[in-house]
């Protein structure tokens, strides 16, 4: 099959690498891709939101199967357009991607179908939100309804902070149209775990668990980022937690979407918080996490295209997912100053150290070729250095060792990715 992957970050590099190992893959394209993806796929200079161009490209290049990796094109309806053009495509249609695209929708769905989540109210009106906030217990959580690059959630400790936050979201429109509605939610405490799954509309297959690190600085300080590192599996995802989620969360979510005539096919990412009262859903995403994909996919034994085709065809029932009995850690190498301001165009050296090492991966996020053919930094998150190990601790040691193989000006990373493992 000829494959088109849509996206250009570390997640899409991990997807392209898995696809390149499939016996079903012939030609692999990635739009727009990046300098690392270019080693496993042909990069096509079309942006992930240029829907007409992507559909034309797929038709003109005999694409048999398209994989949409990113949230924006999914929520915008790229899967619908591809399928209308006769291209089989992996990912939820627009009416199902709303599970990620609207937090208010997701909360109402969970309430209606008794899926455990934090208590909340949705607001279209700033004045009504303020009235509610004034009567609330603190801390309280404010969430812009729509996509906000992982920045639309504010945890507020006082009434004044919450009023200021509501103003930013709903009046100043700091996150654009995403702030037309706002969720006001009860604050919960507990460990966070991410669980990825494949879904074919009715059947769900759970992948291995993972945990990410969102804040920029060591010790979970500093601003929120797209993610500074991950580990998999999570030692906090116990059998007891798994049983609970299987009983009350995973299949219940898939069934709820079907009942609403929003059949979900693709990846559901469950953002869970393990509270004193049991696991609660923090949020859903409609695609692989980034950098969760970079620790989960290298451990998956299945042929990824077989699994993805089964999702599209409604035949996931026939598939058993298998993961290696080991662990993986990903440490993100970023540009110093991320997520605020940072320089680009720095030459990156050391890639050859990863050659012929099957347990080490250098996933590219923000990289490109300069005019002289050098690979240079081209974003805040530059590379995701992943290593496997027999245990989480070994994987962590290996990943940090491999971060030293790479060199570029302004290289920045967290030094405590996977530190939580020591508390398990
Ligand atoms: N109800 C809540 N209680 C405590 N922390 C929360 C709550 N909701 C979200 N958070 C924190 O905010 C982060 C981001 O929220 P999330 O709903 O995952 O949105 P997004 O990933 O789109 O920014 C979570 O990973 C969690 O750390
Ligand atoms: Mg999240």
Could you describe the 3D structure shown?
This protein is of the alpha+beta class and 424 residues long. The protein has four domains: 92 residues, Rossmann fold, CATH 3.40.50; 68 residues, Dna Ligase, domain 1 (2-Layer Sandwich), CATH 3.30.1490.20; 128 residues, D-amino Acid Aminotransferase, Chain A, domain 1 (2-Layer Sandwich), CATH 3.30.470.20; 97 residues, Alpha-Beta Complex (Glycinamide Ribonucleotide Synthetase, Chain A, domain 4). The chain has 13 helices and 22 strands. The protein starts with a strand and ends in a 12-residue tail after the last strand. The structure holds adenosine-5'-diphosphate and magnesium ion.
Give a brief description:
The protein is of the alpha+beta class and 424 residues long. The protein has 4 domains: 2-93, Rossmann fold (3-Layer(aba) Sandwich); 119-186, ATP-grasp fold, A domain (Dna Ligase, domain 1), CATH 3.30.1490; 191-318, D-amino Acid Aminotransferase, Chain A, domain 1, CATH 3.30.470; 327-423, Glycinamide Ribonucleotide Synthetase, Chain A, domain 4 (Alpha-Beta Complex).
Helix content: 25-40%
Number of strands: 22
What is Rg?
21 Å
Please identify the top-level CATH class of the largest domain. Answer: Alpha Beta
For the sheet with most strands, the description reads: 9 strands, antiparallel
**Domain unit count:** 4
Briefly note the CATH topology name of the largest domain.
Answer: D-amino Acid Aminotransferase, Chain A, domain 1
What does the secondary structure layout of this molecule look like, with pairings?
Layout: E1 3-7, H1 10-20, E2 28-32, E3 42-43, H2 51-60, E4 65-68, H3 71-76, H4 78-84, E5 88-90, H5 94-101, H6 103-112, E6 120-123, H7 126-134, E7 140-144, E8 153-156, H8 159-171, E9 182-186, E10 191-200, E11 204-212, E12 215-217, E13 221-224, E14 229-232, H9 239-248, H10 250-259, E15 265-275, E16 278-285, H11 293-296, H12 304-313, E17 327-335, E18 360-364, E19 367-369, E20 375-377, E21 381-389, H13 392-403, E22 411-412
Parallel strand pairs: 1-2, 1-4, 2-3, 4-5
Antiparallel strand pairs: 6-9, 7-8, 7-9, 10-11, 10-15, 11-14, 12-13, 14-17, 15-16, 17-21, 17-22, 18-21, 19-20
Helix pairs in contact: 7-8
Adenosine-5'-diphosphate binds at residues 118, 141, 143, 150, 152-153, 155, 185-188, 192, 271, 282-283.
């Amino acid at each position: 099959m000829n494959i088109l992957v849509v996206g250009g970050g570390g997640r899409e590099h991990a997807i392209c690498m898995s696809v390149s190992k499939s016996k079903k893959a012939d030609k692999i394209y990635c739009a727009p891709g990046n300098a690392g993806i270019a080693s496993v796929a042909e990069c096509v200079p079309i942006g992930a939101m240029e829907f007409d161009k992507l559909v034309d490209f797929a038709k003109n290049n005999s694409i048999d199967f398209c994989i949409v990796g990113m949230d924006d094109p999914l929520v915008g309806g790229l899967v619908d357009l591809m399928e209308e053009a006769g291209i089989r495509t992996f990912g939820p249609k627009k009416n199902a991607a709303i599970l990620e695209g609207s937090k208010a929708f997701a909360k109402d769905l969970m309430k209606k179908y008794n899926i455990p989540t934090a208590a909340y109210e949705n607001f279209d009106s700033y004045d009504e939100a303020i009235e509610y906030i004034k009567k609330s217990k603190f801390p309280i959580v404010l969430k812009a309804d729509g996509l906000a690059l992982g920045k639309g959630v504010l945890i507020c400790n006082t009434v004044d902070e919450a009023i200021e936050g509501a103003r930013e979201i709903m009046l100043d429109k700091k996150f654009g149209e995403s702030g037309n509605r706002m969720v006001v939610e009860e604050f919960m405490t507990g460990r966070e775990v991410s669980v990825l799954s494949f879904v074919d509309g009715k059947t769900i297959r759970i992948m291995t668990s993972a945990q990410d690190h969102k804040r920029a600085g060591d010790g979970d300080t500093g601003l929120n980022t797209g993610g500074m590192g991950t580990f998999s599996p999570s030692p906090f995802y116990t059998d007891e937690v798994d049983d609970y989620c299987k009983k009350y969360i995973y299949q219940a979510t898939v069934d709820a979407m079907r009942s609403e005539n929003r059949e979900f096919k693709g990846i559901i990412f469950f953002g869970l918080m393990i509270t004193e009262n049991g696991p609660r859903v923090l949020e859903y995403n409609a695609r692989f996490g980034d950098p969760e994909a970079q620790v989960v996919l290298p451990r998956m034994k299945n042929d990824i295209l077989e699994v993805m085709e089964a999702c599209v065809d409604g035949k996931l029932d026939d598939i058993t997912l298998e993961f290696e009995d080991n662990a993986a850690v990903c440490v993100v190498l970023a540009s110093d100053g991320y997520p605020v301001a940072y320089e680009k165009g720095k030459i990156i050296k050391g890639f050859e150290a990863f050659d012929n090492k099957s347990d080490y991966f250098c996933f590219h996020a923000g990289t490109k070729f300069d005019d002289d053919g050098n690979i240079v930094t081209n974003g805040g998150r530059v590379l995701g250095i992943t290593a496997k190990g027999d245990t989480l601790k070994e994987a962590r040691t290996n990943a940090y060792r491999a971060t030293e193989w790479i060199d570029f000006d302004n290289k920045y990373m967290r030094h405590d990715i996977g530190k939580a493992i020591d508390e398990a």
